[in-house]
Design a protein that fits this description.
Blueprint: E1 2-7, H1 11-26, E2 30-31, E3 38-43, H2 45-54, E4 63-68, E5 78-79, H3 83-91, E6 97-109, E7 114-119, E8 122-126, E9 132-138, E10 141-154, H4 162-165, E11 177-185, E12 198-201, E13 206-210, E14 216-220, E15 223-228, E16 230-245, H5 252-260
Parallel strand pairs: 1-2, 1-3, 3-4, 4-5, 4-16
Antiparallel strand pairs: 6-7, 6-16, 8-10, 8-14, 9-10, 9-13, 10-11, 11-12, 13-16, 14-15
Helix pairs in contact: 1-3
The protein binds nicotinamide-adenine-dinucleotide (NAD).
């Protein structure tokens, strides 16, 4: 078994990563940065998202595993103080995994160039300085003329991140759907958009055709590109999924409760 361990710069993450490295070597695993069977992220959700992007093109062959060293770790099943249990679980690994959807996005720039990006949480198109104008085409048919700050397209596992902060629904990652959320839509007698989260099945594409302005910003997970001259963008759930190494049960709703409510202790 080949593994690689990514960590953020916090000293607890560095120490934990070193301990995991030694632990996997002790059970006869190899370290392989280029083609790991399991990519382990040690840190927070940002570190996990960066690890996902590093291996995006290898998701069919790589399983992912998160160890979190901070307060919140939505993508992490393990804590820094559980390294010994983690190593035991890796030794007894049955090659089981759990899949979550990925969002694919195709950007067409005004000069005709195209770029493909993916996200595990969300891709946001916005115009930071002034009103963003866009036509939204849903499954091949005109849906709305949007005016506002921007549009956010998220995966189910990203529904608890930025999308939730702007009024999106929390979606179980077993649902193969993407969510579109409007960011600060302008609604008055002149402009009207749906102003509610839209849930789109995996078979359908949403196309966003932008006004001719030159200062768009695209955020995808921890990445961002500014001052883009974008003509249009297409959003669709990917045919590929991210696979998490399932060494223990992942209970999504328990994670949501723990992260956002934390009330179970008082029952
Ligand atoms: P970051 O790494 O500092 O993360 C910001 C917060 O979002 C952290 O508390 C992190 O634990 C949490 N988070 C990330 N993914 C999550 C998920 N799937 N479910 C629940 N919580 C999650 O910020 P960054 O590096 O700028 O961006 C990483 C992600 O953080 C983005 O993809 C975005 O979803 C999220 N974010 C959210 C807001 C917001 O809610 N207003 C603002 C910025 C970034």
């Amino acid at each position: 078994m080949k593994v690689w361990i990514n960590n953020n710069t916090k000293s607890i993450s560095k120490k934990t990563a070193e301990k995991i490295k030694q632990g996997v070597l002790d059970i006869g695993f190899e370290l392989d940065k280029k083609n790991p069977d399991i990519a382990i992220s040690v840190g927070g959700d940002g570190t996990f998202l960066k690890t996902f992007h590093e291996y995006r093109n290898k998701v069919n062959n790589v399983r992912f595993l998160g160890v979190h060293t901070g307060h919140l770790g939505f993508y992490a099943d393990w804590r820094d103080f559980e390294v010994d249990e983690l190593i035991k679980a890796l030794k007894n690994d049955q090659n089981k995994s759990i899949k979550y959807p990925i969002l694919d996005v195709e950007i067409t720039f005004r000069n005709g160039e195209t770029k493909k990006i993916s996200s595990l949480n969300e891709t946001i198109i916005k115009r930071p300085s002034q009103t963003m104008r866009a036509d939204v085409i849903l499954d091949g048919e005109f849906f709305e003329k949007f005016r506002g700050d921007g549009l956010c397209f998220s995966t189910p596992s990203g529904s608890t991140a930025y999308a939730k902060s702007i009024g999106g629904a929390v979606i179980h990652p077993k649902s193969h759907v993407m969510q579109m959320n409007e960011i600060a839509p302008i609604n008055n007698r002149v402009y009207r958009s749906i102003s509610a989260p839209i849930i789109v099945p995996s078979t359908q594409t949403v196309e966003v055709i932008l006004g001719s302005e030159k200062d768009y910003m695209v955020n995808y997970d921890t990445n961002s590109q500014t001052n883009c001259e974008i003509k249009s963008m297409k959003f669709k759930l990917s045919d590929q999924s991210i696979k998490f190494a399932q060494l223990r049960d992942r209970h999504f709703w328990g994670r949501v409760e723990h992260a956002f409510l934390g009330t179970n202790d008082f029952l």
